[in-house]
Amino acid sequence: MEDRGSGPELILVFSGKRKSGKDFITDLIQNRLGSEVCCILRLSGPLKQQYAQEHNLDLDQLLGPGPYKELYRADMIRWGENRRNQDSGFFCRLATSGDQKPVWVVSDARRLSDLQWFRSEFPRQTRCVRVQCSEETRVQRGWSFTPGVDDAESECGLDSGVEFDWIITNEADAPSLDEQLQPILKAAQEAASLVRADP
Question: Where are the transmembrane segments (predicted)?
Fold first, then answer.
């Protein structure tokens, strides 16, 4: 399944709970590697785009961090689950179509089917990364439990039964992010150098 032309040399598939800091960390990785080497793919982007189109909603607000998307989050989750039940790779294919960077950072894997799709389509390149922090830290970052959201598969689907290549603990008293990200950045730089060395 890997014959995709000049596809990625490394795919870092990130997962974590809301307010765990995965967007911050994936942005940090892209900043360190540079946008010519690394792109961030968000599985929620195509989902929100399709949902907004079918429900006549404001896509920019659905993609943003504000309260607008919270009004639709529970229904959007149900709608997305129905789509995934029909075709588990639907949103993964939409998110990955067309990007030719050597390193892909998937910032928001939420279900086992997401990981399985990447591992099936790109078995050599895929590495899975979990970002975790305490509930207390998430509350300090503005999280509060929302029934139908925080107990849905979109938040709990990767809590157990998954073997991650790396686990990042995003807490004040954990080792620094610089220290924790070193092996990931090293793997990404090695992947990028493979592409540069290949004429």
Answer: none
